[in-house]
Design a protein that fits this description.
The complex is a heterodimer.
Chain A lengths: L1 H24 L1 H38 L2 E5 L5 H10 L3 E7 L1 H12 L17 E6 L5 H10 L3 E5 L2 H43 L1 H9 L4 H41 L9 H35 L2
Antiparallel strand pairs in A: 1-3, 1-4, 2-3
Helix pairs in contact in A: 1-8, 2-6, 2-8, 2-9, 6-9, 8-9
Chain B lengths: L1 E9 L5 E10 L4 E5 L6 H8 L7 E6 L2 E2 L8 H5 L2 E4 L11 H10 L5 H14 L15 H13 L5 E5 L7 H16 L3 E5 L3 H7 L2 E6 L2 E6 L10
Parallel strand pairs in B: 3-8, 3-9, 6-7, 7-8
Antiparallel strand pairs in B: 1-2, 1-4, 4-5, 9-10
Helix pairs in contact in B: 3-4, 3-5, 4-5, 5-6
The chains are: A alpha+beta, B alpha/beta.
Chain lengths: 301, 229
C-alpha cells in the first residue's frame, strides 16, 4: 500500500509543520510553559542528584566502617575468624592479636604514658577486624558476629551509620513528595497553557473536523507541541544542571576529601535522559488532556 | 442523495428544533431552505454534516444512515460534504491559498495535487490574484468566496450553505449565487439556507419552507413564501 504510506508521511509532515508553527506563533505562552518545565525539571534533577550523592556518601562512609570483634579469653581466634569469613556479606577479616594490639597501643601512647612496668599482663583481647561487602549490611552482619560463640563483644560506627541512613530516608521521602507535587503542578500549568493555545486554535480544530480530519490526527500537532515544550525545558534545565553539578562536585570534594565522589559521566547522561522522558511525557500528557476535553466539548456528543 | 425520514431534533435545553420532518433531495439538485429565524434551517444543515444527531428518525446521505456512523467513520462523511458559513470561518493567520489548501493538507494530499486543486478552486471563485493575501485584507464577499473555494476544493458531491449571503450586499450576494449555480452545473447537490427573498424569488429553484421545525411548503420552482419572515 505505497499510497497509504505516502499519505501517512504527508500527514506526518503536516503535523510537524503545525506543531512547530504553533510553538512559535503563541510566543509568550510557549515561553511560560518552557520556563515552568525548566524550573520543575531543574528541581527534579537537583533532588535526584542530591539523593544520588547522599547515597554515594553513605556507601563511601559505610565502606570505611569496620566491625571490630573482640575475642573472649578462652576463644579460638583463628577458628572464629574463619567462621566470620564464612558469613554472607563479609568481604574480609584480619586478625589483630593481643600482642600486636598492645604494641600498637604502646606505640600510640608512647609520648604520654610509660608502659614499662605499669602492667605485667596484656589486658587486651584478640581482635578480628571485619570488612563487609555492602555498607547496608553492617548492622545485620555485626549482629550475626555477636551471636557467634567466643565473641566477647563488638564495636562499629553504629550511630554514624544510623544517622546517615535516617538522612537518606528523609531526603528520599521528602524528595519523592516534592517531585510528586511538582509533577502535578507542571502537568496543570502545561495543560492549562496548552488549553489556551487550543482555545486560540478552536477555529482550526473546528475546520479540521469539518473537512474530515480524524480525531487522532487533530490530536497530534498538540501532542507534538507538548513534547517540544518538554524537550526545550529539558535542554534548558540541562544547561543549568551540568555546570552546577561540576561546581558542586568540586565543593563536595573539598568538604569531604576522604570520600571518593565519582564524577560519573554516565550517571549524568542517565539523569538527563530521565529528565527528557519526564519532560516530554508531562508535556504530551498535559496537551492530551486539554485537547481531549476540548474535542469532546466541541463535537457536541 | 439526501433523505430525511421522520426526523426530530430536541436540544437538551428542551427546544424542539425539528418535528417529524420528511424530505428528499436528489443528486445535482439546487434547493433553497427558507423560513423565519429559529425555524430549524441551521439544525437541519447540522444534521446533514452530523454536527448534531437526530433525536428520532433517520438522516441518509448517499444511502448511508449518518446517525449510525461511528466517530471513526465521521471523517469519511465530512470529506464528501462541503460546508459554507455565514461567518466564513477562515483562519486569520493563513493566506487565502493556505486556507483553501488546509482542507487537502489535513487529508495527506500530495503537494502537487494540493497546488493544482487550490489553483483551480481559486480560479473558479475568481481569487487567483489574491492567493497570497491574508483574509483580513479581503472584503466580505471575497472572504465568502475563499470559504466557498475551501468547501469545494475536495470536490464533494454535496455542498451545504448556511446563510452564505447573510453578511453581504446584494451585488456581492449575486456573485456568490452565480458561483453556486456554476458549481451545481458540475453535478454538485446544493442546499442553501437563506433569508434572502430577492435571490430566492429570482432564481426559480426548488424552495423548501420550514416553520416551527415542520416542513410547511415544498415548491419545485418556487419563490420566497408570503408571510414567512
Amino acid at each position: 500500500m505505497p499510497n497509504r504510506v505516502l499519505t501517512f508521511w504527508r500527514q506526518a509532515g503536516f503535523v510537524a509543520e503545525e506543531a512547530v508553527a504553533s510553538v512559535t506563533r503563541s510566543g509568550w505562552m510557549s515561553g511560560i510553559v518552557v520556563i515552568t518545565m525548566t524550573v520543575s525539571l531543574l528541581i527534579l534533577g537537583g533532588i535526584w542528584q542530591l539523593s544520588d550523592d547522599l547515597y554515594a556518601l553513605t556507601r563511601a562512609v559505610g565502606a570505611k566502617v569496620e566491625i571490630m570483634a573482640f575475642v573472649a579469653q578462652d576463644g579460638d581466634t583463628a577458628q572464629l575468624a574463619s567462621a566470620i569469613d564464612e558469613l554472607p556479606g563479609v568481604a574480609s577479616t584480619q586478625i589483630i592479636t593481643k600482642d600486636q594490639a598492645w604494641q600498637q597501643l604502646q606505640q600510640e601512647m608512647k609520648s604520654q604514658v610509660d608502659f614499662s612496668g605499669l602492667l605485667q599482663d596484656n589486658p587486651l583481647p584478640d581482635t578480628i577486624r571485619v570488612k563487609v561487602q555492602d555498607p547496608a549490611d553492617v548492622a545485620p552482619v555485626a549482629d550475626k558476629i555477636q551471636a557467634l560463640p567466643g565473641v566477647e563483644g563488638i564495636n562499629y560506627g553504629h550511630d554514624l551509620l544510623a544517622k546517615l541512613e535516617q538522612i537518606m530516608a528523609f531526603v528520599q521521602m521528602a524528595g519523592l513528595l516534592v517531585v510528586g507535587a511538582l509533577m502535578v503542578a507542571t502537568l496543570a500549568v502545561t495543560g492549562n497553557t496548552i488549553r489556551l493555545t487550543v482555545q486560540a486554535r478552536r477555529r482550526e480544530i473546528e475546520i479540521m473536523q469539518l473537512v474530515g480530519a480524524s480525531a487522532g490526527f487533530i490530536h497530534w500537532p498538540f501532542l507534538l507541541e507538548g513534547m517540544i515544550f518538554g524537550l526545550m525545558g529539558t535542554l534548558l534545565a540541562s544547561g543549568l544542571l551540568v555546570p552546577w553539578r561540576s561546581f558542586l562536585l568540586i565543593r563536595l570534594q573539598e568538604l569531604f576529601p576522604f570520600v571518593p565522589i565519582d564524577a560519573d559521566g554516565l550517571a549524568m547522561v542517565r539523569l538527563l535522559s530521565y529528565l527528557l522522558l519526564v519532560g516530554m511525557g508531562v508535556g504530551a500528557l498535559g496537551s492530551l488532556f486539554s485537547v481531549r476535553r476540548h474535542l469532546v466539548a466541541a463535537s457536541g456528543q | 442523495m439526501i433523505r430525511l425520514k421522520q426526523v426530530s431534533k430536541i436540544y437538551p435545553s428542551g427546544v424542539r428544533a425539528l418535528v417529524s420532518l420528511n424530505l428528499e433531495i436528489g443528486p445535482s439538485e439546487f434547493v433553497f431552505l427558507v423560513g423565519p429565524s429559529g425555524a430549524g434551517k441551521s439544525t437541519m444543515l447540522k444534521l446533514l454534516y452530523r454536527s448534531e444527531i437526530p433525536t428520532a428518525g433517520q438522516v441518509l446521505v448517499g444511502g448511508v444512515d449518518i446517525g449510525k456512523l461511528s466517530i471513526r467513520q465521521l471523517p469519511g462523511l465530512r470529506q464528501r460534504i462541503g460546508v459554507v458559513f455565514q461567518d466564513y470561518k477562515l483562519l486569520p493567520q493563513r493566506t487565502v491559498s493556505e486556507n483553501v489548501a488546509f482542507a487537502l493538507k489535513v487529508l495527506g494530499t500530495s503537494r502537487r495535487e494540493i497546488d493544482r486543486r487550490t489553483h483551480s478552486a481559486l480560479d473558479l471563485v475568481g481569487l487567483r490574484e489574491q492567493a497570497d493575501l491574508m483574509p483580513g485584507q479581503l472584503s466580505g464577499g471575497q472572504q465568502q468566496r475563499v470559504c466557498l473555494a475551501r468547501a469545494i476544493v475536495n470536490t464533494p458531491p454535496v455542498l451545504l450553505c448556511d446563510e452564505p449571503t447573510g453578511n453581504l450586499d446584494p451585488e456581492t450576494s449575486w456573485d456568490i449565487m452565480r458561483l453556486l449555480t456554476r458549481i451545481n452545473q458540475h453535478g454538485t447537490t446544493i442546499v442553501v439556507a437563506t433569508h434572502n427573498k430577492m435571490i430566492v424569488d429570482s432564481m426559480r429553484r426548488r424552495v423548501v419552507t420550514i416553520d416551527g421545525g415542520r416542513l410547511i411548503l415544498d415548491q419545485p420552482r418556487g419563490g420566497y413564501p408570503v408571510g414567512v419572515g
